[in-house]
Amino acid sequence: MLRPAPTSPAHLTPPVTPALLADLAVAACTARARLPRVPDMTAPHDADSTAELRSIEALRPTFAALAEAADGRALDRALRTELGVLGERAADGTAAHQGELWSVGLLVAGAAATGCRSAYTACAAAATLARLPYEGAPGPADTPGGRARLHFHVPGATGQAHSGFPHVRRVALPALRESRAHGRPETAARMDALLTLMATLDDTSLLHEGGPAALLSVQMDARDVVRAGGYDSPGGRAALDRLHARMRDSGLTPRGSHAVLSAALFLDFTFGPENQAPGA
């Protein structure tokens, strides 16, 4: 049974349909996009943000098609191929959201295939699908993230999916729960989750843009924000200013962390923050 969080589209009720899952996927990506920007938190809704929201909305038919294709299906190569073809069709017009299309799209398919039983089963099904071979998949050297993954020997988005999204389950969702438990506003809770991801994730976008030194500096600065009390604390804001300056001056964007946060928000919106497997 779906239990949308209060900040998700709560008017949407079961039965679970492909359209409902697509709505929740778009809501998750939109919620991520509406957060104050890192590194530029001064203009979260400028013209670029409006264009980003439109491009997220353009993913809705693809998310619905992924859910419809996977609904009740066996997790086999035939389904993986069908999902891959659907993803390819969407790829040309959604280049800025390839990480979200991959991560959230797999979880949409995993949820549909398993009847939306739980966040854990959705992640497990998505991991099974991700590990299945697909002949149309781009080679690791064909994308910036793939090249960074090969060169620096990090898991990247592919490794995250193959492992059942450990940073979604063990980092982002717990950070959301902890921040909410302290009574922080929802925007602050989501920002705390994003900053916790930035402190721990080997983000291939950062590696591609600035190499290991850039990744390490962002991780250390994000860790300072979290340790100082998070986004909604005076100490955290001071540390965040330093993180903003470093990323702005170096032209860095944590796209990998963005995609993982969107995936976490999709599970949060769909199943509720408490519906996780013990020790997941």
Describe this structure in words.
The protein is mostly helical. Helices cover 67% and strands 0% of the residues. It is globular. The two termini are 20 Å apart.
How large is the share of residues in beta strands?
under 5%
How would you spell out the order of helices and strands? HHHHHHHHHHHHH
The helix/strand class is: mainly alpha
Q: Kindly state the number of beta strands.
A: 0
- The shape is globular
Spatial extent as radius of gyration: 18 Å
Q: What's the helix count?
A: 13
Average pLDDT reading = 85
**Helical residue percent?**
55-70%
Q: Outline the low-pLDDT stretches.
A: 1-12, 41-45, 276-280
Sheet with the most strands, sense and barrel status:
none
How many angstroms does the end-to-end distance come to? 20 Å
Topology summary:
Elements: H1 18-33, H2 47-57, H3 60-70, H4 77-91, H5 98-113, H6 119-131, H7 144-152, H8 156-162, H9 166-181, H10 186-200, H11 204-227, H12 234-250, H13 255-271
Brief sketch in words of this structure:
It contains 13 helices and no strands. The protein has helices spanning 18-33, 47-57, 60-70, 77-91, 98-113, 119-131, 144-152, 156-162, 166-181, 186-200, 204-227, 234-250, 255-271. The longest helix is centred in the last third of the chain and has 24 residues, at 204-227.
Characteristic key phrases:
disordered N terminus; 280 residues; mainly alpha; disordered C terminus; 13 helices
